[in-house]
Design a protein that fits this description.
The protein has a single domain, classed as Rossmann fold (3-Layer(aba) Sandwich), CATH 3.40.50.360. It has five helices and six strands, in the order βαβαβαβαββα. 39% of the residues lie in helices and 16% in strands. Strands 1, 2, 3, 4, 5 and 6 form a six-stranded parallel β-sheet that branches. The two termini are 19 Å apart. The protein is globular and about 45 Å long. With 184 residues, it is α/β, with parallel strands linked by helices.
């Protein structure tokens, strides 16, 4: 299963719209098993200080999704020059080292401005490199996201951008396949 991580818990976020379209590309167009892992559904008790020592039972589903994933596609917006705090907080609660070591990771970034979330993906890349994840090198950046989504459907409308996302998805599936072969 490929987990498509919605890197924010903001209601009505463009990140969720893009992540949903990416999940559709994986499942419908490429026939892969993929699911959304949405930070908007994190259990509120995870935000209590005691959660660092005693993870709430409701977090087990999130932890299991990460641990059982064949690969993880992180879709992140850019907030104030980095990733949303909730995304970093979520990552800080993953089981160490199992959730990180040799975890295949792929990135899609989006921003309201012209950078397409280059900085948050750089920050995430540093975290996952430090923890020995396998990072797929082809990243997709979606700048000026408000101009790229159809207001009625919430989907990317530019054929070239959709093709870039599809190319990344095909490449990530190939990356996962090659990693599986090297493990055997």
């Amino acid at each position: 299963m490929i987990e498509i991580l919605v890197g924010t818990n903001r209601p009505g976020s463009n990140t969720r719209k893009v992540a949903t379209q990416i999940a559709e590309i994986y499942t419908t167009e490429l026939g892969a098993q993929a699911a959304l892992l949405d930070l908007a559904t994190l259990p509120p008790e995870l935000f209590a200080p005691a959660a660092y020592e005693n993870k709430p039972a409701a977090f087990a589903t999130f932890n299991r999704a990460i641990l059982d994933s064949a690969g993880l596609v992180i879709v992140t917006p850019e907030y104030n020059g980095s990733m949303p705090g909730v995304l970093k907080y979520f990552i800080d609660h993953w089981k160490y080292p199992e959730a990180f070591e040799h975890r295949p990771i792929c990135y899609v970034g989006l921003s309201a401005g012209p950078t397409g979330a280059v900085r948050p993906i750089e920050h995430l890349s540093a975290i996952f490199a430090y923890r020995n994840a396998w990072q797929f090198p082809e990243r997709v950046f979606l700048p000026n996201i408000n101009d790229l989504l159809d207001p009625a459907t919430g989907k990317l409308t530019d054929a070239k951008l959709v093709a870039r996302v599809e190319k990344q998805a095909r490449g990530f599936l190939d990356f996962l396949s090659r990693l599986r072969k090297t493990k055997n």
